[in-house]
Each structure stands twice: as C-alpha cells, then as structure tokens.
Amino acid sequence: MTPDLGEGDTVVVVGASLAGLRAAQGLRRAGFRGRVVVVGAEPHAPYDRPPLSKQFLTGSWGDERLALADAPKIASLDAEWLLGWRARMLDLAGARVVVEPTVGEGGGAGDQRELRYDGLILATGARPRTLGGRSDLAGVFTLRTIDDARALSAHLDRHGARALPTGTPTVDAAGWRPQAVEGPTAQVVVIGAGFIGSEVAASCARRGAAVTIVEARATPLEQVLGPAVGAGCAALHRAHGVVVRTGVGVAEIDGDGKVERVVLDDGTEVACDTVVVGIGVRPETGWLEGAGLVLEDGIVCDETLFAADGVVAAGDVARWHHRLVGAEMRVEHWTNAAEQGTAAAENLLAGRRDADAFAPVPFFWSDQYDVKIQYLGHGSPDDELAVVDGSIEEGRFVALYGRDKKLRAAVAFGRARQLMPYRRLLAEGASFDDALKLASS
Question: How far is CA 206 from CA 139, 227, 238, in A?
C-alpha cells in the first residue's frame, strides 16, 4: 500500500531532536500541508547534542548556541509540539500512537493521549548504557541530554574545575592549554573511550580537572578506527595530561553516598569525586516491543527507510540496508540524523514504491583538544591501513582503510582539506589502489 498523504491527513513524528526536526522541516519543504504532530520526551525545544560534550561542557558556549532552530523557524512549520511527552505504545493495525507525559512534564499523572496518523516517522534516538552496581552514587553521570550536561558542569564547578569564559575558542590556534586551577580540583574518571568518553575527557581536562580514562579495549576508539589510529588517540590524551588505562575493565564504583573511587578488575583503585560513564548507547525501541516492527539493534528498515507501510525511521534508532556499504547499519552521528530525517520525510510522502534508497557516504567528526578528527565511509578495525599524509606519531595525518581491494573509509586528524577528496571516491566505489594513487598525485 502506498500512502497518499494530503491536506486532510496527519503525520506524527515521534522524536523531537535533530532527526525529528529535520523530518518536520522536510515534510513542509516537500509540500505537505496536512497536520504535523511532533512528540518529544524532553521538555526542551530541539537542540544540538554534539556540543554538550565539548563547547557546552567547557562553558565556552551558553544555552542560546544550542538551539537547532529559532522560534520563528519553529513557528513556520505550523506543527503541534508535544514536548515532555513520550510514546508508550504503537498500534500498527489501528494506525495510532499512545503517548504519556514524562514524569513532571506535559500533564498530570496517568494522563495519556492517542494520536491517530496517516504517516508515521520514528526518530526516538537512543539512551546511554549504564553500569550496574552503585551507579546511583552522587557524582556518577552519563551524558546525553542538556540536563545531563548542566548537572555535570555544575558538579565540576563545585569541585574546582571551573567552566571557561563564554566565547572561549574551542580550538586555540596558539596551542591547547588547560585551565589554570588554584587549589584542589575535580578528580574525574571517564569510563569508556568512545567518542563521547573521549570528548568529555578532553573537556574536563580543559577545565583543569585531573582526568583518568578507563577503556576495556586495547586502545581508545579501536572498534571504529582500529588499533593503530586508536593508539594515536591515546597519545593525544596523554599529551594533554590525561591518564589512559586501557585493556582493563571496571569492577566497582564505590563510595559512601557519593563516589570516592573506581575499582578496576585488576584490583587497582582510582580515587575520584566524579565518574562519567560513556560506554555507548542503546536505541530507544522498548516502547515498540510487540508492535509488529522488526527490532534488532534499532528499528530494521529497508534501503528506503520504511519499517512498515506508512512508517519510516530516522536517526540513531534506524537500522537500514545501506546500498553503498552493502550491509545493514545503524549510525549514531549528527550528519546521518540530519540527512536521514529529511530523507525519511521525503520518502514517506513519495510512498514506498517510489521512494529513493538512502545511501550517502557516512561522515562524522569529533573535536578533542586542538584536533578535529573526521571520518568518511564505513571501515572495520582490521582493514588494511595506509597513512597517506603526515604521521600518526605527529598527531596530524590522513589514513585510508581498504578491504578486498576496495576503499572502505578515510580518517583525518587535523587535515580536513586533505580528507575531502576521498568522499567522491567512496561514493563511486573506488578501489584501494585508486585512492592510493590520488594520495600520491
């Protein structure tokens, strides 16, 4: 069945972050004049998440810099915004979503609303993984929302790691320097050296905190960048005074009412007053159990982002077949959420039969200390690696990943201009040899 969405129809967007906002904008840009309802579990208007672990956490950005759209642009969408409401149940056969207020937001206890739809866009994102044990101790944080970031920043302030003045550059062209701190400062343990963990560690160090990273894998970001580039990430942290413990897990977070130490599984104890758990996220799909969609590390979609007739998904929650990569994938980065939200809306309006495959070259970036890390494509940790510009030891380089004679991915540390030519090669399915020839030309 191909939906025929007109002025008298309703599209419900579940999720009011980047992918959901882009979906609502995409609907209007494509000419949809019907009713649009956007449901968001947080009480906040759509805001940008990547700066939370970087500019916002250091203090160099205030709240006003995080807005994804100003009030006039939000109003121009002529959408109904149910902020502080979360989806509780999807009835595919009845084409309805049941929503309820988030605790303390959106309505009275026990309130529910039923939203009937003619088209549905699922963009519920993901939530942080947590550790068991005593993760409820004061001073233990995850970082996903603006409220998480505010709480962590206030805690660091109270423990002597002061926020930088608003407007402080994220990257200092004269070289990175930690915040000057007089007297005791926060002792921070970051558990997990993925992108969030690495960025939080860099931001805490910039505020002058004493930071230790604990990572179970042999190197930071090894699961994405591989061991050689991961070793370069570890060297970057160490060069800025961060202690990096790899190849070791966490046995216990301990303290008397508040966190006082992290016990590692080799018996080592790390004294601390702050713990940030950055061990990844889980797609927000619990409310969809039993709804009839395929759920497997996200909402499983076809290559056009349809999860069912009249239902598409976008952002961190979507797992779709990527024609260029040749596999199912789920991507947790800003560019994907933005592009996929727009594509999902356009495909919903086009109908399943006429929808276009969503297959851009994956791209993400991370700012750590004075280095911008950028990545194109979809490689594997054990791909063949060739450094084609600079060197990992210098901390400024471009490296290419290849497998089965094909170019799979490219990464750059502080080399944005040199990286971008490889985007075209990845889109064309170029060979690894062709990429090496371009590098040497």
Answer: 19, 26, 13
Q: Would the CA dihedral through 223, 362, 319, 366 be positive or negative?
A: positive
Same domain, 98 and 140: no
pTM of the model: 0.94
Structural domain total, the chain: 3
Measured CA to CA in angstroms, residue 348 lies from 23, 29, 283, 288, 296 at distances of 10, 13, 22, 19, 22
Q: How far is CA 109 from CA 102, 115, 295, 337, in A?
A: 9, 18, 29, 32
**Can you give the residue range of the structural domain that contains 407?**
379-440
Which segments within 265-331 are labelled E, that is strand?
A: 269-271, 274-277, 281-283, 299-301, 306-308, 311-313, 318-322, 327-329
Same domain for 262 and 338, yes or no, is no
Nearest to 236 by CA among 53, 416, 370, 381: 370
In this structure, is residue 368 part of a structural domain? no
Give the number of other Cβ atoms within 10 Å of residue 412's Cβ: 24
How is residue 432 written in tokens?
A: 């690894």
Residues 183/160, Cβ–Cβ less than 8 Å: yes
Does 106 have pLDDT greater than 70? no
Q: What percent of the chain has pLDDT over 70?
A: 94
Across the range 387-412, mean pLDDT stands at 97
Q: Are strands 113-116 and 96-101 parallel, antiparallel or unpaired?
A: antiparallel
Radius of gyration of the chain (CA): 23
Q: What is the CATH number of the domain that holds 325?
A: 3.50.50.60
Start-to-end C-alpha separation, the chain:
52
Same domain, 149 and 263: yes
Residue 171 has pLDDT above 80, yes or no: no
User: CA triplet 41, 315, 422: central angle to 5 degrees?
Assistant: 150
* Domain match, 287 and 208 both: no
Q: In what order do the strands lie in the sheet with 187-191?
A: 140-141, 274-277, 187-191, 210-215, 243-246
For residue 166, the model assigns a pLDDT of: 77
Q: Examine the domain organization and report whether 255 and 306 are in the same domain.
A: no
In a domain, 302, yes or no: yes
Average confidence score pLDDT of the chain: 93
Is 308 a member of any domain? yes
